[in-house]
Amino acid sequence: MNYAVTVFIVGKAREVRIGLPDLLAGKGYQVQSFNSAERFIEEHNVEVPGCLVLESCLPGMNGLELQRMLAGAPRSRPLVFLTGRGDIESAVQAMKQGAVDVLTMPIDDELLSSSIEEALRRDARERQEHKLQRIIRNRLETLTSRERYVMERVISGYRNREIAAEIGIGEKTVKVHRGRVMSKMIVCSVPALVRLGVRVGMSVNSLTVNSEPGEAGTHGVSRDSFVWR
Predict the structure, then answer these.
(1) What is each CA distance from 131 to 8, 44, 89, 134, 176, in whole angstroms?
(2) What's the whole-number mean pLDDT along residues 199-215?
(3) 47-78: b or e for each residue (b if 16 or more CB lie within 10 Å)?
(4) Cβ neighbours around 106 below 10 Å, total
(5) Most buried of the four, 23, 47, 99, 156, by CB within 10 Å?
(6) Strand runs (DSSP E) across the chain, as ranges?
(7) Which CATH superfamily is domain 6-131 in?
């Protein structure tokens, strides 16, 4: 399902709760507002792309507590933090916890629009990265345990003969496994395979490959060597 990009607003101040939705809707944004952190947690859909505009002072769970909870969730949401004038401590904590920006109330419309646009760009990048990671993990699930083992050794810089000696099989058999790994992962080079592994947090001891085809070694890895189908 395709969802419209949405600016979620959580706040209790009239300026935030009523004024901001009208302002942002007038600028063409899809808006959804909540009067408490608890209601936001209960009702908002993490699958909807967008960002959060979050007021610091809220009834019940405050803005910093909600931000901290979201930061620890599997799918975080970029946010713009709103504070009262002089609330330096909250502003500092919000930035430390990864806020895109911290704005003081009353809110400058242009600064808010600029911050929201940056938050939306960050959300789009993070969602794209999440999508790519899911694709890679789906491909990893197609590998046999032996193929996964060979892949882990390849992206760690092991040569075919070293893998063969470690497993106790022939070097030709290692090459067969490597070929199947490359086919199932849909890549055409070791640098691309390394890059996929890095992207999903696999242990990599050497981000390098040898100029000799099929052997790991000491040459630099291209960051753009992917084949996506």
Answers:
(1) 22, 20, 36, 5, 29
(2) 59
(3) ebbbbbbbbbbbeebbbbebbeebeeeeebbb
(4) 11
(5) 99
(6) 6-10, 30-34, 50-55, 79-84, 101-105, 208-209, 219-220
(7) Response regulator (3.40.50.2300)
Strands 208-209 and 6-10: unpaired
Q: Is 22 helix (H, G, I), strand (E, B) or coil?
A: helix
Selection from 116-120, 200-204, 214-218, 222-226 with the highest mean pLDDT: 116-120
Q: Where in the chain is the domain with CATH 1.10.10.10?
A: 142-220
Domain with CATH 3.40.50.2300 in the chain: 6-131
Q: What CATH class has 142-220? A: mainly alpha
Sign of the dihedral defined by the CA atoms of residues 30, 32, 37, 42, in that order: negative
Task: Tell me the three state secondary structure of residue 76.
Answer: coil
